[in-house]
Structure formats: C-alpha cells, structure tokens
Design goal:
By secondary structure, the protein is α/β, with parallel strands linked by helices. It folds into 2 domains: 101 residues, no CATH class; 126 residues, 60s Ribosomal Protein L30, Chain: A, CATH 3.30.1330. Helix content is 39%, strand content 25%. The protein has 8 helices and 10 strands. The two termini are 14 Å apart. Bound molecules: iron/sulfur cluster.
Length: 281
C-alpha cells in the first residue's frame, strides 16, 4: 500500500485552484485566437481580442481571469492501493480550497444553505467532490472552478428513446439558444447522454474538463459534436452575446449505458473562462 499524506492532497488542491483561476488552458487560448481570425462580426472580433488580452494579463500577473471565481468542483480518481494518512481526505480538499481562495484573493461565492438565509460560508467551501476508486497506486485530481452565469443556463431532459439523435441534437441547440448571452459566450457545451438523471449530469460536467480541440473517441459521437457546434454557431449569439459566428468553442459529449426505456440528456454549459487544472500524485 502506498501512503499519501493528507497534507500533500491539500497542497495539490490549493495549487490547482490557483492555477485554474489564473491561467487559462492553452487549448482554450489557442481556440479563442483561431476563432477570432474566423469571426465575421467586428464587435465579435473585438470581444474575442479583449477576452484573449484579459486571459494573458491574468496569467502574467497571477490574478483571477474573472470576478466569478466559481464553485470548487473536484474530480478524484483514487487508486485502490493508496492509503491516505495523517489527516482526513475531505478536510484536506476543503482546506486546500480555503487556502487557495484566501491567498489568491479569489471571491468566495458559496452560501451554506440555498433558500432561506443564504449566508456566505466565507471560504468558498465546501467543495463538491466526485470520487472514483480505480486500480493502481496514484491519485489523479482534476479541479474546475465553475462559474454560475453558465451553470445557471444548464438543462436536463428525459428524452424518449424514439427521439433519437435528432431529439438530442435539437435539445442541445435549443438550450444554447435559450441561454443567449447569459453564459458569457463563447461557451463550451458539455453534453451527458445516457445513465440516470444524476449520471447524465455528472458526465456532462466531467466532459467540460476535456480540451476544446479534442473530440469524442467514438466517431459517431464526434460527428454529432461537430454537427451541434456548427448549428450552435449559426445561432448568431456571438462573443458576449453581441452577435457573430463564435457562440461556442466546442461541444463535448460523453455517454453512458442507460435503461431500455430512457434517453436522459443533460447540457452543462461553461463560459469562455473554461477553467480546469489537474495533477497526479
Ligand atoms: S459565467 Fe464565466 S465568464 Fe461569466 S461571470 Fe461567471 S465565471 Fe465569469
């Protein structure tokens, strides 16, 4: 059994949230530049230039790329041959979040209860942790600070199997159309197809961590990603919702086995601040 100290997990989480909030991924930055060259709207081009400039300043000066520094979402793949010692696993994650948001001057955006008093927890905890036990003796940690302008525009539909490919395609494009400028386009569209309600939502969120220039390895789903992206970019919403052909940078689909009677689909939208970072311990 390999031992990993809780302190090391805390430090890793802290570093990852700082990195994710300060440094946009090179895949997103390159795609923004590529789309700026292709954008036909002058205002759209200007918005993309500002987003690119903003991302470069944030990275160079180590400041948050957006004032909404997000809900701390953490995906952990924990090797079954790892023992976590000298501390509590969940507390290590929350302490890492606490220290990152404090030291990085990142906005604390979590309320402890959603309906009545909505008091801020003041340290951006608790994190949302998704844990998978996997073979091996490593721990893979991926974090995403999730902005809520885009999270609020997400949607679920329990389609019928007979709705088929067209039904899924139309639901995804309609969800983006309804969202309009609210999710801070250009967006990344995560689509979870199959499973149950919660599984579809989970894989929709997880596939937002995939690089924007990588398609699903199953060519059928990759084709659907390209077709949806093309139709989304015909909607005319454009960068910041001010018009143009760059409404989305990518559509990322993940799928899972599902019940014979169902076709669950979840659309989880991410804004242009498509932040994520990962590490292996
Ligand atoms: S949706 Fe994204 S870009 Fe818009 S305010 Fe929130 S984090 Fe920032």
């Amino acid at each position: 059994m390999r031992e990993v100290k809780a302190e090391q997990i805390k430090e890793t989480i802290k570093d990852l949230f700082l990195k994710a909030n300060f440094e946009i991924g090179s895949d997103v930055l390159e795609m923004l530049k590529e789309r700026k060259e292709k954008e036909k709207s002058e205002i759209g081009q200007a918005v993309l230039s500002q987003i690119i400039e903003n991302d470069i300043i944030a990275s160079n000066e180590k400041i948050a790329m957006c004032q909404d520094t997000g809900y701390a979402v953490v995906f952990v793949e924990l090797g079954q041959e790892v023992a976590i010692v000298d501390g509590d696993f969940n507390e290590a994650i929350n302490q890492g979040v606490r220290e990152a948001y404090d030291e990085g001057y990142l906005r604390k955006s979590v309320v402890e209860e959603p309906l009545f008093e909505r008091k801020n927890t003041k340290d951006n905890t608790p994190a949302i942790v998704h844990l998978d036990i996997v073979p091996g003796d490593k721990i893979k940690i991926a974090v995403t600070p999730k902005g809520f302008g885009s999270e609020n525009m997400s949607a679920l539909k329990m389609l019928k199997p007979a709705d088929g490919i067209q039904g899924v395609h139309d639901f995804v494009v309609e969800t983006v159309e309804k969202a309009g400028p609210n999710p801070c386009p250009p967006i990344v569209v995560g689509v979870g197809i199959g499973g149950t309600v919660e599984k579809a939502a989970l894989i929709a969120k997880k596939c937002l961590l995939r690089a924007v220039d990588v398609h699903n390895s199953d060519e059928r789903y990759a084709r659907l990603e390209r077709a949806m992206l093309e139709d989304i970019n015909k909607l005319g919403i454009g960068p910041a919702g001010l018009g143009g052909i760059t409404t989305a940078l990518s559509v990322n689909i993940e799928f899972a086995p599902t019940h014979i009677a169902g076709l669950p689909v979840v659309v989880n939208i991410c804004c242009h601040a498509a932040r994520h970072a990962e590490a292996i311990i």
